[in-house]
Design brief:
Elements: E1 7-12, H1 19-30, E2 37-42, H2 55-77, H3 79-89, E3 94-96, H4 109-124, H5 140-161
Parallel strand pairs: 1-2, 2-3
C-alpha cells in the first residue's frame, strides 16, 4: 500500500459494513495510509426504505454505517485511528455508485456526477515528480577507504565461515 497513490475500498451500500471492509480499514489505518483512502459504496440504487425518501437521506444512512464501523475501529485501535478515519471522511472521499453495470443514461445525472467525482479525486492523487538534474560527487579518498573497509569486512566474515581465519572469535556457529 505504500507504493500506491490511492486506495479504493469498495463496499455494498445495501448493508452495514461487515468484517472484511472493517479489517481493510484497520489495516489501512495501522499502515499509515489513511490519507490515500477513498470509499465506493456500490448498489446505492438498491438502498430503499420508508425513512429514506431522498438521495440525501440514503447517503446519510450509508455514511452512518461507515461512522459506526469507524467507531468500532476506534474502540479496538484507539482514538487516533478513529480520528484519522474521521478526518479522511471529512475530505468527502466517498462515492455512491448504483446500477453502473448498466449503460448510464443521459438523464442519470447522479451516477455521472459520482463517477466524475471519483475520477477527479483519483486524478488529484497522482503525484508528478519532475526529474531533477543532480549528479553524484565522489571524494576519491573517502570512496577508496569505504571500499577497502567493505572488502575487509567481507573477507573477515567469509574466512570465518570457511574456517580460513586465524581469529577463532569470529567463527560462525
Amino acid at each position: 500500500m505504500d507504493e500506491v497513490e490511492a486506495i479504493i475500498l469498495v463496499d455494498n451500500a445495501q448493508s452495514p459494513m461487515i468484517s472484511e471492509p472493517i479489517n481493510a480499514l484497520k489495516h489501512i489505518v495501522t499502515t499509515g495510509n489513511t490519507s490515500k483512502l477513498h470509499i465506493c459504496f456500490t448498489h446505492f440504487d438498491e438502498v430503499k426504505g420508508d425513512n429514506l425518501p431522498t438521495v440525501s437521506d440514503k447517503e446519510g444512512h450509508v455514511v452512518g454505517s461507515l461512522e459506526n464501523a469507524i467507531e468500532e475501529i476506534g474502540k479496538k485501535l484507539g482514538a487516533n485511528a478513529q480520528r484519522y478515519l474521521t478526518k479522511q471522511m471529512q475530505k468527502d472521499t466517498f462515492f455512491f455508485l448504483g446500477a453502473i453495470h448498466n449503460e448510464i443514461r443521459d438523464n442519470d445525472d447522479y451516477a455521472k456526477e459520482q463517477l466524475c467525482k471519483l475520477v477527479e479525486a483519483l486524478l488529484e492523487t497522482i503525484i508528478e515528480v519532475e526529474p531533477s538534474e543532480t549528479f553524484p560527487i565522489y571524494n576519491g579518498t573517502t570512496a577508496a577507504l569505504a571500499i577497502q573497509r567493505a572488502a575487509d569486512e567481507y573477507y573477515k566474515r567469509w574466512n570465518s565461515i570457511l574456517n580460513l581465519s586465524q581469529d577463532i572469535s569470529l567463527k560462525e556457529h
